[in-house]
């Protein structure tokens, strides 16, 4: 028995008749940000396909209504990449809170012990037009971390910078707390 890559196995499963809807949904997820635009994609999330209709969760009812007017244009863009075209799209806020929200509200993040507060203002660059070498990207990342660490407390055990919430909760940073629990 030879070892095969995960992608090869997934493609093999998706080629079976019973997995066609999953393949179609994966294609939708791949092309969704390009079809609706990245700003709209942050406020929407495809949740499934049933009987040829794509169901999409939206952040607000206003988004659902606005996108329902654009559904034919969105369908046209998505169907360019589908073997079996989608018949319709339904937008609703019903599954927004139940689906995994990649952009949770800031208030819930602020309650987590490892919340670091406001990230320092860094120059915003368009990632689609700006290309950096790995060394430049690492340099920017390191500079951002150093800026953030200026406002952070230090762990009493290992002397590394950490969020104040971790010290309040465990009296040490999360790494030292995890070592204690072993």
Describe the structure.
The protein is an alpha+beta fold and 182 residues long. The chain has two domains: 10-92, DnaA, N-terminal domain (GMP Synthetase, Chain A, domain 3), CATH 3.30.300.180; 106-117 and 133-181, no CATH class. It has helices spanning 6-14, 20-36, 38-41, 61-69, 71-79, 106-110, 134-149, 164-170, 174-181, and strands at 44-50, 53-58, 88-92, 153-154, 161-162. Helix 2 crosses helix 5.
Top keywords for this entry?
182 residues; alpha+beta; GMP Synthetase, Chain A, domain 3; 2 domains; three-stranded mixed sheet; two-stranded antiparallel sheet; 9 helices; 5 strands; 46% helix; elongated
Q: Please name the fourth-level CATH homologous superfamily of the largest domain.
A: DnaA, N-terminal domain
CATH class of the largest domain: Alpha Beta
Binned, the helix content reads 40-55%
Major sheet attributes: 3 strands, mixed
Strand content: 5-15%
Q: Strands across the major sheet, in which order?
A: 1-2-3
Mean model confidence by pLDDT: 79
- Measured on Cα atoms, how large is the radius of gyration? 22 Å
Number of domains: 2
Please state the overall shape, judged from the principal axes of the Cα atoms.
elongated
Order of helices and strands: HHHEEHHEHHEEHH
How many separate helices? 9
Q: Identify the CATH architecture of the largest domain.
A: 2-Layer Sandwich
* CATH topology (level 3) name of the largest domain: GMP Synthetase, Chain A, domain 3
Chain-wise SSE layout:
Blueprint: H1 6-14, H2 20-36, H3 38-41, E1 44-50, E2 53-58, H4 61-69, H5 71-79, E3 88-92, H6 106-110, H7 134-149, E4 153-154, E5 161-162, H8 164-170, H9 174-181
Parallel strand pairs: 2-3
Antiparallel strand pairs: 1-2, 4-5
